[in-house]
Amino acid sequence: MNKKKLVAALASVAVVATLFAGCASKTTEGDKAPAAGDTKKIKVGLVTDQGGVNDGSFNESAVRGIEQAAKDLGIQKLNPIESKQQDAYEPNLKTMSNQADLIVGCGFMMEDAMKNVSSQVTDKKFLLVDAVVENPNVSSITFKEHEGSFLAGVIAGKMTKTNKIGFVGGKEGDVIGRFEAGFVAGVMSVNEEAGKLLMSKDEKTPGQNVKYIDSFDDQGKGFEAAKLLYGSGVDIVYHAAGGAGLGVFKAAKDMDKFAIGVDSDQAVTAKDYKDVILFSMEKKVDVAVIDTIKDIQADKFAGGKLKVLGIKEGAVGIAPTVHPDVSKDAMDLSKKAEQEIKDGKIVVPGTRAELLNFKAVEIK
């Protein structure tokens, strides 16, 4: 090979080497982890129980949490899927898992469906509110509803003028049982006469002024149960019936009585009935949803674990909107009871069995 040909060959090799070096450099840049600001948005979707997104109560609180997270945490909110029938829970959870990174399921009746779907879709994260699934990709959250309901019972027991107070529950079970037991214990602690009509005679049978309607969305059933109670002389009804509780408010309005809201600040979420809602017992599902999203973003998702949230955690209590007719004395007594629960001086019963063994406390 002459000198000119040798120089040309070496130059060609140099050019090719430079091209490969450039390609390698670009590939290395592409393999770098994205900057924090480039991280893809977490997609979060809700599957409701029977009450639907407009129940003004439980599900609506979860919706608020996701909406707030979209504003404050930069997540992507997906359209919720409503479950009108129990057999729709599993297919709805599967559908949402095809889109979302975090699937939020609301309601204790969703337990089996959540267990099945999360076992099949192991690459997604799930949040279950009001029940427990121990799969490693499921975070479960339950609340001490009995603690917040105790405060509601204290106020109702002080406010009643007829010494007759009522309770309307959705479906009987552990969760609504906590609302019932705590509320009755609160009433009994300040007004034993009113409490007697709410008190269960045994562990299985509700008290005379306790009505279950086997629904979280049938407003007609809520209306009829409350109408029956008001017609018997009851002047205040506390409901734990989700969307069906709007029927309780309608009965209160029609009969010029009072009601107590639940889960959300219902004088705000059910504005048409604000004049008959004394106050609401707030259960902060929205905050639990936001905290779970924060945990995911911080890579601290509590899969396979249960969180139980009560008064000490600021998760249950009396909502901000209080009717002008609620006396300062009643509110002050409720605040004292809240502090005593925080301090462990009052242990609120969460079942009828515990309620039967509960000794009414003197709130100081």
Describe, in plain words, how this protein is organized in 3D.
This protein has 364 residues and is α/β, with parallel strands linked by helices. The chain folds into 2 domains: 101 residues, Response regulator (Rossmann fold, 3-Layer(aba) Sandwich); 169 residues, 3-Layer(aba) Sandwich (Rossmann fold), CATH 3.40.50.2300. 44% of the residues lie in helices and 15% in strands. The protein is built from 13 helices and 12 strands. Strands 2-1-3-4-5-11 form a 6-stranded parallel sheet, with helices on both faces. Strands 7-6-8-9-10-12 form a 6-stranded mixed sheet, sandwiched between helices. β3, α4 and β4 form a beta-alpha-beta unit. The longest helix is centred in the N-terminal third of the chain and has 29 residues. The chain is globular. The N and C termini lie far apart (107 Å). The N terminus is likely disordered. It is found in: Cell membrane. InterPro entries: BMP_lipoprotein, Peripla_BP_I, PnrA-like. This is Nucleoside-binding protein. It is a lipid-anchor. Belongs to the BMP lipoprotein family.
List keywords for this structure.
alpha/beta, Rossmann fold, globular
Q: Gist?
A:
Keywords: Cell membrane, Lipoprotein, Membrane, Signal. The chain has 364 residues and is α/β, with parallel strands linked by helices.
